[in-house]
Amino acid sequence: MSCSSARSATRSRGGDARGRATATPHLAAAPERRSRRSTPRRTGHPSWNRLMTTRSRRAAACVVGLAMLLCVAAAEAIEPGMPNPPASPTRVRCALLIVDVIDIDDVSESFEAKISLVASWHDPRLAFDAAAEGTERKLFQGGYQVAEVFAGWWPQLVLVNEISLGDTTAVTIEVAPDGGVRLMQQRTVRLETPMQLHDYPFDQQRLRAILLPFGSTIDDVVLEVDERYTDTTDELVRRNEDVNVAGWILRHLEMAADETFLSTGTGQRTFSRLVATIHLERRSWQLVWQLLFPLVVIVSMIWSIFWIDPESLSDRLNVSFIGVLTIVAYQFVVIDHMPRMSYLTFTDTLLLVSFVTMSATIPQSLVIDSLVRKGQTGRARRIDLTCRWAFPLAYLIAIAATVAWFAGH
Predict the structure, then answer these.
(1) Selected residue with higher pLDDT from 233 and 131
(2) Together in a domain, 141 and 59
(3) What is the pTM of this model?
(4) Are both 369 and 223 inside the same structural domain?
(5) N or C terminus of the chain: which is more exposed, having fewer CB within 10 Å?
(6) Sign of CA pseudo-dihedral 251, 257, 263, 266
(7) Predicted confidence (pLDDT) per residue in 197-231, tens digit
(8) 253 with 290, same domain?
(9) What string of DSSP letters covers 175-242?
């Protein structure tokens, strides 16, 4: 009896407990949800570990895939050894062509020109199967393709006597199946080069453009003249007169390769270079008619004082001083169009001879006036008669001597 009563009481309490739990499910679940928000997640739970493992694997797979893509792209862009020359030394055949001479500045001893640069070399690392690639050549055009897409080595050719930031208007790299590479560039450059103006305005100039492989000594890169292009500029000038700049005639382009020594931080090093020499002849007849011919006419007009009355000293001196001032003005005109030099040009010498000739008329007039004052008017007139032919003859002899001197040098 007592046992059955105990079992009944136990069932009754269990039923009441289940009833209370069933009747108020939200009251029991709410504290559990709050406890889940407030307490940190435990990574030891199996479901949470499985979730984190899945996410980690996906993230790791993405990182590995991205790294593989970057590695593949890098491998395609730069193969082992590509940043270095293909041989030691690498022989690069070069040619520098003159497309147009834009300007020649005598004062700054510089010239501006549009040039085309052609360089060829062999790189067996770039050889490819034309049948497999479906093309007989690989062509890279424009600055982006050459700098970013082209995977091979190419020489950094710079003009060492360039004095301003040049403009590269076009660039192309062409690769043949056997690994032959050809670089073509078109640039607009201003170059500084010494000018020999001794014979100005009858001078001929040799303007130089000096090409150097930047950062590569003769052990790395050797420049050679590409004989296929030696006559290209000359033929272009013969066909197209627009290549010549105003006041000049382009006669010939000469190219030669040699070596030069430069001092660096580690000592003196040897570099290979290409020197292109542009032979130009000045169109001098315009300057003759604009400068020299008027000068001779002015000097000849000064000799008119020998026909003025010996007693008119003021008139004779006025003419002489006007001539001297004119020569001084001519000197300023010439100086504005010439660089500062330590030697006399042909024009400078002619101006000096003209200045001395006209200045000599001033003491001659003073001597004539002195003779007139002494009553020796007849002797004064005889001196004027002699000067009428002596001064022109002396002037012509001085000009001839000047021409002979500069022609011999």
Answers:
(1) 131
(2) no
(3) 0.70
(4) no
(5) N
(6) positive
(7) 888 888 999 999 999 999 889 999 999 999 999 88
(8) no
(9) E-TTSEEEEEEEEEEEEE-----TTTTS-EEEEEEEEEETT--TTTEEEEE-GGGTTHHHHHHHH-GG
